[in-house]
Every structure is written in structure tokens, then in C-alpha cells.
Amino acid sequence: MKISISIGAYNRVDVLGMVDYIQQAEALGVAYAWSAEAWGHDAVTTLGYLAAKTEKIILGTGIMQISARTPSMTAMTALSLANLSNDRFILGLGVSGPQVVEGLQGVPYKYPLGRLKETVEIIRMGFRGEKIRYEGRRFTLPLPDGEGKAIRLDHPPKDIPIYLATLGPKSLEYTGAAADGWLGTSFSPDHAEAHMDHLAKGALSAGRSLTDMDLHSSCNVAIGENVQEMIDAHKPGVAFSMGAMGSEKTNFYNDAFKRAGYTDDALAIQRLWKDGKRQEATDRVPDAMVTEFGAIGTPEMVAKRFETYRDAGINSLTLRLDANLEISQRIANLEQIMDLLPDRD
Questions:
Q1: What's the pLDDT score for residue 132?
Q2: Does any domain span residue 280?
């Protein structure tokens, strides 16, 4: 099992300290660093800088929002980052959600899966060095009745892995059929079927299996003896995901918890959050919605949870550590986590 770390919110942290953290993580054997993209920072700039500051760690976008860029520009950006990093780059893509896509990007969110499929197909045309000529339901290149022509990207062909961050059943099926890897969130190894069954169905439809994919999952990790205190500290994050990470109509995180058997809890927490009762929403989160979706507890408990993730088919854990920790504390946590990993490569 391999370990990944996330990079984000560099507008609120010491940038040089962040670079030191990534470099020390690389020295410890952390395999991947994923750059986040939400509504305050982009997923690209950080990786261009880190490409010059690191040597071995794989750098990936976790994720680039497909609605924030045209597919051709995404392909060009990926090729640039692959060059800058000496081919240590993975292109992670996701559809985001309607609140960000329509509220911030100003483009319709309709048909996100269809848009994702066409985006991936166009990007791969660019990676293969083909002239980009495409007729889809969401994209048509060149633009009809205009002065444009089919253009080949000015770059030698390059095979850049594409990982998809998906949560809905149909999107998971597509990921299983078409992606090189999966960037999973809201995943519990205790309820792995909520995601894995759909991934496996898609893989089977394409004549392959889940072993042909790199399967990553985010994982909240906290190690200590004060177990209940650590569980309680993670409940506000669960409440935020249930209530704020999407609209009341479209919240993929909420839906993922429902598929894992937490329908009543997820809906109740969402309702309280939408009514402005944030503390009540947090108090409504049961312990299991924390403990079953992460690795929290004593070193022995955390080591056992890592084994559970491995046995569920996950080959890499993307760690979610306390964002308020000093860099030295994060490194100390990483050292401890690396010692607890099963079957470390």
C-alpha cells in the first residue's frame, strides 16, 4: 500500500513550509502529492512550482475541474506539467458540483457525466498527437460554420495517466471502464460495495478488472489514545460534507453515505445544516460516520484499519491530517503512519 498527501489552501499557509513538507514527505517514501482545486486556489500552479522542488514524488491534480477549462486547454496543461516534472504527472479530473460550476464558472452543470466522457476523449486525442476533430453532444471541434480548423497540439505524443474522481454509480462505472485510476472520497472499506461494485461493473464491460486500475481513497487519519476526542473533532467535517458540499438536490458526498447505509443520518444532518443549525448538524453525526470512513484511534487500531482498506482493494491512501498541525508535527505523523502500513512497497 502506498501513501498520498494533499496540497491545498496555499493562500492560507506558509508556502515555503509547504514545500519543505512535500520534500520531507518525498524523503519518507510518500508516493503521490495531489493538488486540490475548489474556489480559492487552482490545481495547476502549485504543481509547476513543486516540479522544480522535488525529484521522485508523483504530482497529480486532485482534481482539475472539467468545467473550468476547455478539454484542449486541459490537455495542453497536462502535457506542460508532464514536461516540467520529467513525466511525474497524473491528470486527475472531476466534474465538481452545480454550486461551483454554475455559481463560479458560469456554465451549465447539466449532463456532467456526458461532459466528462467527451472531455476525456478529446484530451486523449491531444495526448496521442492527433488533429483534434470531434463531434459530440457537448463539444464540437472545430466550431461549426466558423473559421477554425482541426489542430494538432504542438507536442510529441505522450501517455499521461488519467484518474477520475467520481462518486455516482454511473460515473463510477465509467471510471471502471475508461480510467487509469480512481480518486475516491466518502469511501468506507466496511461498505466497499457502495463504490467497488459500480467500478467493477464498468471494468467488466470494458473487458478488464479492478486490478488493472490504481485505486486511491481519501482517509482521515488521527493517532492517539484519546479516541473519542479525535472522533468528535472530525464530526464538523462530516456535517459540512453532508450539508454544504453541494446543493440540497445534488450532493454526491451525501449520496455516497446513503449508499453505505446512512440514509436517515445523511438526510437529517443535511436538513439541520440547510436550516442554519450547524452545531446541531455536527452533534447529529454518529461516531460510525467518522470511524468507518477513516483510520482513527490508537496505533494498533489505525494499523488494523489500513489492513481493512487494503483488503477492500485500495492500493493507495490519500491522507487527511489535521490541517492545523505544524509542519514538524505533520512529518512526525507521516513517519508514524509509514511504520503502520501493511505490505509497504
A1: 98
A2: no
Q: Over 60: is that where the pLDDT of 345 sits?
A: no
Question: Residue 17 has what pLDDT?
Answer: 77
pLDDT for 10 equals 54
> Other C-beta atoms within 10 Å of 326: how many?
11
Please check whether residue 65 lies inside any domain of the structure: yes
* Whole-number Å distance between alpha carbons of 195 and 168: 8
Q: Is residue 94 part of a domain?
A: yes
Domain count, the chain: 1
Query: 47 falls in which pLDDT band (50, 70, 90)?
Result: very high
Q: Is residue 273 part of a domain?
A: no
Q: CATH number for the domain including 156?
A: 3.20.20.30
Cα 138 from chain centre: 24
Return the closest-CA partner of residue 61 out of 321, 80, 52. 80
Asked if residues 223 and 336 have their Cβ atoms less than 8 Å apart, the reply is: yes
Q: Model pTM greater than 0.85?
A: yes
Q: Which domain holds residue 332?
A: 2-226+295-340
Q: Are strands 131-132 and 151-152 parallel, antiparallel or unpaired?
A: antiparallel
